[in-house]
Amino acid sequence: MQLRNINHTYYIKDEDTATKIKLQVLDYENQPFDLKSAEKVEVIIGINEGRLLTKEPALLDETGVLEFWIDEDDVLVVGKNLVEVHITTIDGRLQKAPSKGYYELILSRSIDTLGANVTKVTLQHFLDEVERTKQDLTDEVENAIGYVDEKISQMQSDVQDAVQYTSETVNQVKQEFNEQLDTTVSNKMTPFVEVVNERLAQKANKDELEVERARINNLVAHAGDTDGNAELLDIRVGWDGILYPTAGDAVRSIQQFMTLENQPWEVE
Question: What is the spatial distance between Cα 75 and Cα 124, in angstroms, rounded to a whole number?
């Protein structure tokens, strides 16, 4: 679809509210498009940054021809303004002309506004810009929050992995240390225990030998006067290898040995 300028209006001065811009919409076969059969027709004026102004044009009798003008409070910028015609059909479809590029309307300054910043901004345009800025900021904040949440989640996961790894490492080190300690103690203590057991065995054998020797010496010393009482003489040799004067003294020594802190041993 194309736009054809009917009255050759390509330029307009600032604050010119009388000049009318007439355009004709042509279809894809370069024939006039019947605008009156459409549900809605709008003229959209904007710049590269987006829409500035929406106008409802007048539809003329000639097929496909419309006209519009710039009102005092309309938004325009000094320089090139881009124009499109949006056509909404009865069945709700949207067509835009021209299909390629834009119709360009050049706004220049009038003598009265030379040296001034000539850009008209309506309240609605200002509110739209504020809303767009708010939405942009909201999107940026949400993106930042999402990024921070993702990083926090990743950090928590990394910390949990580190704690788990540290715990497993500590447990492994403790186990290896205990095993090494048990091996070391066993290696060091085994020879010592063997020596102690050997010496205890030797000491027990020595004590028993001394007892037997005392018994023999006692029997030999009284061999001539036992008169058949060798057993009685044997009783005089105590449990500790000491030769007591009488058998009773030897027996009483056993009683003294069996008493711990004046408490006799209990024999079951």
Answer: 10
Q: Is 70 exceeded by the pLDDT of residue 221?
A: no
What is the Cα–Cα distance from 177 to 136, expressed in whole angstroms?
A: 61
Judge whether residue 87 has pLDDT over 90: yes
Q: Show the tokens assigned to 5.
A: 């300028």
| pLDDT of res. 176 | 83
Structural contact between residues 125 and 52, judged by C-beta atoms closer than 8 angstroms = yes
pTM for the predicted model, two decimal places: 0.43
Contact 10, 19 (CB under 8 A): no
The gap from C-alpha 142 to its chain's centroid, in whole angstroms, comes to 18
Correct CATH for 2-115 of 3.60.120.10, 1.10.260.40, 2.60.40.10, 2.40.70.10:
2.60.40.10
The three-point CA angle 14-16-19 to 5° equals: 135
* Residue 68: exposure state from Cβ atoms within 10 A (0-12, 13-18, ≥19): buried
Structure tokens at 76: 């325009």
Say how far residue 78 (Cα) sits from the centre of its chain.
Answer: 52
Domain boundaries, the chain: 2-115, 222-264
In angstroms, what is the C-alpha Rg of the chain? 60
**Joined tokens for residue 187:** 């290696």
Collapse the DSSP code of 5 into the 3-class scheme (helix H, G, I; strand E, B; otherwise coil) and give the result.
strand
